[in-house]
Structures are given as C-alpha cells and as structure tokens.
Design a protein that fits this description.
The structure holds two protein chains of two kinds. By secondary structure, chain A is an all-alpha fold. Chain A is 75% helix and 2% strand. In chain B, helix 8 (177-206) runs antiparallel to helix 10. Classes of the chains: A mainly alpha, B mainly alpha.
Chain lengths: 481, 514
Amino acid sequence: MDFSQITLSAALPEYILACLSLVLVLVAAFSPADEQNMKTVRSLSLLGYALAFGAIFFVPQGTHVIFNGLFAVGPLGYYMKGLVLIGAFFAAWLVSDGWGDGVDRPEYHVLIVLAVLGMMVMISANDLLSLYMGLELQSLPLYVVAAMRTGSLKSSEAGLKYFLLGALSSGLLLYGASLIYGYTGTTNISEIAASLSGGEVSAGITIGMVFLLSGLAFKISAAPFHMWTPDVYEGAPTPVTALFAIVPKVAAMGLLLNVSYVAFADISVQWSQIFIALSVASMIVGATGAIMQQNIKRMMAYSSIAHMGYALAGFAAASEAGFSSVIIYMTTYLFMGAGAFAIILNMRRDSVPVEKISDLTGMSSTHPLLAAGMMIIMFSMAGIPPLAGFFGKWYVFLAAVNAGLLPLAVIGVLTSVIGAFYYLRIIKLMYFEDAEAPLDKGLERNNRLVLLVSLGVITLFFMGISRVNEAAGFIALSAFG
Amino acid sequence: MSLGISAVLGVVNMLSSWPLLSVIIFLPLIGVLFLMLIRGDEQVVAANSRQVALWVSSFAFLLSLFLLWGFDPVATGYQFEEKAEWIAGSGITYHLGIDGISMPFILLSTFLTPLAILASWQAITHRVREYMIAFLVLEVMMVGMFASLDMLMFYLFFEGVLIPMFLIIGVWGGAERVYAAFKFFLFTLLGSVLMLVCMLYMYHVVGTTNIVALSGYDFLPAVQFWLFIGFFASFAVKVPMWPVHTWLPDAHVQAPTAGSMILAGVLLKMGGYGFLRFSLPMFPDASEYFAPFIFVLSVIAVIYTSLVALAQSDMKKLIAYSSVAHMGFVTIGIFSLNEQGIAGAMFQMISHGLVSAALFFCVGVVYDRLHTREIGAYGGVVDAMPRYASFFMFMMLASVGLPGTSGFVGEMLVLVGAWQASYWVAIFAATGLVLGACYMLWLYRRVVFGRAEKPEILELAPLNNREYVIFVPLTILVLWFGVYPSSLLDIMQGTVLDLLEISGAGTATQTALR
C-alpha cells in the first residue's frame, strides 16, 4: 500500500470519521449508560462532522485516484460529502434531549457516524467493490437505527422491511456488478468507462447496468422501488426519519451521478431511458400518493419520492446541464428536508411527540413563527418562486428541455401542481383553521438553529443561486472533462 | 420661489441617479421588517401595523409618481432601466425597466395598495400584522412583475403573487374561503407551470431570458404555435377568460374587501399585461392565427357572464362576473391587433382597475355595516347613506361605460379596434354593453333605490372620513380619465405603436399616424 502524501490527505474527512467512530465505541462502552454519556457521544460526533467538513477544505485540489484505484476524490465528491456532512450534522443536532425511542442511547450516534463514513466512501468509490463496501457500511447501521424504537411494533416492522428489501436491492446490485465484471473484465469504474468508449455495447453490460441502477434506485427510493419508504419513514423514530429524509438520499445521488455519468458515460442513451421511466414514475407516485396521507412522516416519505423524481429528470437529460442540475436540486432538497423535520420533531402535545398532519391544525395562532417557517418550507417544496425549491425545479426541467425531453418537463410541472395540493393542505390546516388541542409551546434550542439556517437558505437562495450554479457547473465540467 | 423649484429639481436629479424602480419594488419589504419588529399587546400591534403599512405603501406611491414625472412618452424603448448581474454567465440578469405599457400598471398597483390597506382598517380585526405583511409582500410582487425585463424575474414575481393572495383569501376570507383559496391557487398554478415549460424552451433556444432580446427573436411559426398555447394557458386563467374563469367568482366572494380590490384591480391585469408583453411581440404569427379563437372566447365571456351576472343574488359575485365580462373586452382589444384596440384594451384595464376596486369597496362599505352581501337584504340604502349612493352611482355608471367616465373611453376604443378586425365581434361585444347596463342598473335599483322598509337599513351609519378618503381619489381619477383620456393615451401610444411594429401587424397607415 502506498502511503504517499496524497493518500494521506485526500481521504482526510474519511480518516477523521473512521477514527471518531472507534473513539465513540470506546466512550460508549466504557462509560455508564446514562444521559450524560449520550450527550458526550453526541457532542463528539457533532465535533467529528464539523472537523470532517472543515477537512474538505484542506484536501488537495483536483481529481486524485488513491488506494490502488479504489477511491477517487474530485470536486463532485467534495461537494456531495460537504452536503452529507451538513445533513448529518443537522440530523445529529436535531436529536433533542430526552426524545427516547432508543435514539437517546449512545449507540445511536456511533451507528450514524459509521453510516456517514459509508456514505463518504460510496460517494468517492471508484470501483464496484469499494462502492458496494461503502453502500453496505451505510445501509447496515441504518437498518439498525430504523428499528431502534425497541418497544414499537411499527419500528421493528420498519427495520425488518428496510433490511429485507435493502438486502434484495444489494443482491440486484451485486448481480449487476458481476455481469459488468464478466463483460468488461474489470470492476474499476474508470476502466469500465474506458472499455465502453467507442466499442459495441453488449447486451450483458446493458443488463448488468440495469440491475446496478435498480439497486441504487432502491436506495434513493425512486418509484417503482419506493415501497419501503412510507413504512420505514413512519415506523422509524422521528429523528431517524429526519436522517433518512436528508442524508442517505444526497449520498446515493452523488453515487448515482458517479456511476451513470462517469462509469457508463458512453452508453448514456441506454441509461437515460431508465431514468426517464424512474423519474416519471416517482413524480406521479410521489404526487398522488401523498394526497391521502394522515401521518406527516408518511407524507414526507411520498414528498421525498416526488423530489427524487424531479432530481432524476436531471439524470434523464444525460447532459452536463443535467449533471449540475442534480447537484443544485439536492442542495435545495437538503435544506428543505432539514427545515421541515426541525419542525416535525417539535410537534408535541403534553410532552408526547405527535405525528398526525391534523396535529398541525391552528398552529399559526399558537406558534406563529413556527407556522410561518413551515409555510415557507411547504411553499418551497411545492416549487413556488422565489423560494429555493423553485430554482431546483427550474434547473432540472431546463436540463430536460435542453435534452429535448419536453414531455418529461410537462409531466414534471403537472405533477408539481398535484403535489402543491398536499403542501397547501398543511398550510391550510395551520392557517385557515382554529386549533382545538394546541401543540406544546416553545421550540427546542437545537431545532431552532437548524430551522433558522434552513429558512435562511430557502428564502435567500435567489441571491446565492449564481454561486451554486457556478459551483455545480464547475463540478460538471470536471466530471465531463 | 426659484429656490423651491431648484430644490425640487435637485430631488429629481438625485432620484434619477437612484435605482428608482428597485427602491419602489423593495420598499414595502422594509415595511415588512418594521411590522415584524412591532412588540406589544394585540391592540397595539394591530394599530401600529395599520399605520406602518399605510405609510410605507403611501410612500411607495409617492415615489412611483416620480416615474410619471420622469417618464418620456415620446422616447422609444425602456426607461428607468436597471441592469445587474444575477446568475453569472447564463444570460439571466437582474433587469428592470418600464415603458408605456407597464408604467400605468405600476402606478395603478402603488395607488390601489394604500387604498386597499385603508379599506381594511376596521374590517380586519384579527392577525392584523400578518395581514399587512401579506399586503406589502403582494405589492412587492405586483410592482416587480410589471417592472421586470427578465423572463425569469417576471415568473418569480408572477408566481410569487400567489403566496400572499392565497393567505389573504384563506385566512381573512368568508365561510367558503378554503375552497376558494385552493381553487384560486391551483387554477393559476396549473396555467403558470405550462408557461414555465415554454419559458424553459425559449431560454434553451435563445440562450437568454432578456425580454427585449426575446421580443426581437423570430421563433419558427410552428414553435410559436405551441409557445403561444403555453403562455395562453397562464394568462387566460389570470385574465380570466371563459371557460377558465370559474375560480374568480369564488375567490372574489370569499376574499376580504381589500383582497377583492387588489384582485380585480391589479391581479387580473397581469394576464392582459402578459399578452401585451409576451404573446404579441414574441409570437406575432401565432397571435394572428389564434385571434379568431380568442375573439370567440371573449365574446362568449362578454355575453355569457353578463347573463350570469343578471342571475346573481350576491353583490360581490355579480361584480365578479362583470369583471369577467369587462376583461373580455380587454382580450378582444388586444387581439384586434391594431392601435385602437390595444390602446383601448390598456385603457380599459386601467379604468377597470379603478372602477372595479371602487365597486368592490362599495360592497365592502355596506357589508361592514350589515354583514351580508345578499342583494335582497338591502333596498333603500339611499335614504340612510345619500353620499354613498352618489359614489356608488358614479362607479356603477363608469362600469356601464357612461361617456365622461373612464369606462366609456376604453370600451369605445376597443369596439373601434374590434370593428376593424371583424365587425361581427364588435356587434356581439356591443350587446355586452347593453347587458352590462342591465345588470348594473338593476343591481343599483335593488340595493340603493326603493323604500327602506327594514329598520336596519335606516340605521346605517353614513360614510366616515376614511371611506371618503378612499372614494374621492378613485372618483377623481375615473372622471379625469373620462374627460381627458389623452393624459393616459399619450403615455402608452408610443409603446403601443412599437409593439405593433415588432409584432409585424403595424401597417403603413399606423406608422403614418405617428
């Protein structure tokens, strides 16, 4: 193994998280299992995310391939890792003291640190093996935390369902990877890309790619691989749902960008069709499925399916503009999701967390500021300008139109109108109706920070769009160059 | 004396170096900031919120008068232009500017907003602060939309209007407000997203969202056809044209008085403005192609909604249907594609903005007193409120199109323009005028005339000073534009002729007129 300077520095964020996870295991194991211990572990994990985030700015510029070609770092990886770390920081920060549900145990944070490490590995994976390794390192802790609410049947069901379907998807992915290895003779992503350039594409590679992408579509809960999402979102403890909603999706999108746009760059004609189908199905399922939901976590699950559908429109475009539009979309998605869950996690009545949509009724008179925040987030998710959500949609649909996929853009905007209905329903409950049983007053200090940051990003996104667009364009250029 | 003049000139010079349009657009946001900072118990907050909103919006109106002052009606192109980098390297810029079409609308918006805030002075008693924030945000969106010279900015403001208006209808509206707010939002959004796809396509083809550049771009006729349909979907809902007008009566009936004033006064004009700013100059061939189709829809709107208005028993609903009919004249005028028609449509929009706002306020005045909009509940109001009856009569006659009021000039010009395009359209549209007179006079007779038999009618309080302050400026303007229409026509004439030239419909005679 080569321990040159570049090897040591390029994976600095990963080293930090790996060391941190070891430290956390020791701290968690050798101190008494009380609240103080949990707080220590959480503070340490927060510190770790912050350090890893800071480390991104100290890694060497440009694209580097290290660990014998298993691991590649470049602008795309840095950006997506930055988003993942922000999301992970938010998710850990949102676990308020005394929430219960199993997430008050120190193990929770240890598991999340491991999952985040897995996400970082998979974003940077340059080989199907390291990809699978990262993916599983991400998935296994998440299966556990989904079932963390030990007394709850729903939580156990969520964990089991997530695990079974996750295992199935991993199987699909592995089968696809084996086919690709069989037909190209390599598992290295750069070499796969090289072997595909110019030559004939055999059916085996196409089939392998379809399996691989199906496995990944499961991770981002794109329809028709979305079945687990509503149940897992509902069953998992709410802080875990918040994590699911924001972090793994961003990481999996980063991975998907890498696999489709880099590994299979030369057969984009093939995969763009897959993404068109996934995108349309997700947009429709997400928009229509959410309408009848009574549980806000289930609604957010369908909402995230719809959002994945919009982001996948950027894949369907199979162009540089599409590539950068996905990055922009995921940036807006992260902050909208974090803001929404900062409020959902604060929904309590008589100190008991509640999660029915109708519990929000009349919130504008009991919690005027929270309701205003939720309203802004909902309008943003519905894609109403001038909020952040609109710009995400603008860029993905622009990419779709540029690629000549006008029908996809039309379906997309029409489903966004259907989707607007259920976002508006929340605003209606909060603003147009009077509260019968108001929620508890106050907002956790932790949630306040996340909410403020998210709202700031959402409302002022139109000022920063130029920078985000430039960054996304630069990343796309480096990936395509 | 000379000192005074030089001081005024000094102020004007100073303002000309200012980004005046940006200041007018974003000034209400400073008001929003103040509103959020107000502390105290509910009464104090409510009283202060009203004051802040009124002063800020009045100040914005005063500033917008400088636009009128500095506007050069003979100059071609855009004035008060501001351009700044927005999204680097993408052809999307922060670009503002006004011409003879947008300037009157900006003044209309800034003029009606303080009046609408005054109109809700006593009618709105709960969540006053939020209400005023919604109105100021609404003003930002309206003025921003009329001043935008960038398509993306236009869309941001155009859609952004939905947020405050949805809340105004939904929170402060009547019994069926939820249904009305959803219908308003989803109808408008559905139209707008189709326009969004067209905008994306245009941006893809031309590479910029600059409205000036897009107006000069020749789209292929087949492309124009589809782009026109996309934009039409959005603007037709906004105008609203038959058969997508059904959200309007619901929205108007449920909205609070001030919401109706702004909705009828400004929001409906966004559709007409959109036709003039986008459809005509960018898709001239398609506009010509679709003109007969739009004539048919408009004529149906004029006649059908007038008949529907006759059957209404709710005052606000009646005036809402009359708005659809009047906006039918506007679309006829725009797509007659000649100078008289377009100038008439513009004039009609401004006139209708003033008259319908005043009419909705007329309803609001008696609604505040009796809390019903049923026509049958009134009768003989003249006995208790003679001055109100005179204002109401004046506005009713202006709505009918009595010579000497602004309503006459607009409808007259539209009919002249329509006659040149097709005399059948003019004939059918003219029957709308007769029907309009029927339902408005009948409404007036049932509400105001007759003997006041019900005791509560006789006890109606006369108009108070606040209500005079709203009625008087509206009356003066309606009368002013009625007897001196050139004051408005001169401002827009140059732009209208330019528009006809760009859209290729400008014939030799029209150029000669200039």
